[in-house]
Specification:
It is a single chain. About 85% of the residues lie in helices and about 0% in strands. The protein is an all-alpha fold. The protein folds into 2 domains: about 1-40; about 45-139. Helix 2 runs antiparallel to helix 4 and helix 3 runs antiparallel to helix 4. It starts with a helix and ends with a helix.
């Protein structure tokens, strides 16, 4: 059986070997990087077309999902989850002097307003993507 001193020496050797391997690998990668950086990347047109087709097939579903979420967020005070609905809950909490609830609802309202802005931007981007996919599929 190995005593404690032998095991620590063994660990030290393992660490030294690992450091040596890491240093050697770094040196190899450092010399190989400039050669690969100047080479032109290969473009696989078939793979690129497959990826474009896959992305375009998802645009309609994403547009529907974003539209449904925007419809809910921009609904009236009777639409559960809308900004107006949350504002009415906030007004009720203020009338009932529920300080903690007011703070939580204000934070939720800020998040919902930001989400509405993000979803509107995403909807615009998806409309552009749908237009691009329509022109690419026609070509």
């Amino acid at each position: 059986m190995l005593n404690r001193a032998d095991r620590s020496g063994s660990r030290r050797n393992v660490w030294l070997r690992a450091a040596g391997v890491t240093l050697a690998a770094t040196a190899v990668l450092a010399t190989a990087a400039p050669a690969s950086a100047t080479a032109e990347p290969k473009v696989d047109e078939e793979r690129l077309a497959e990826r474009l087709e896959l992305a375009c097939s998802r645009v309609d579903l994403a547009t529907d999902r974003v539209g449904d979420r925007l419809e809910r967020l921009t609904g009236d005070a009777d639409t559960i989850g809308s900004v107006a609905w949350l504002e009415s809950r906030l007004d009720q909490a203020r009338e009932n002097d529920r300080e903690q609830l007011v703070e939580r609802l204000e934070l939720r309202l800020d998040v919902r307003r930001e989400l509405t802005d993000v979803l509107r931007a995403r909807s615009d981007a998806l409309a552009e993507a749908a237009e691009f996919c329509a022109t690419e599929s026609a070509a």
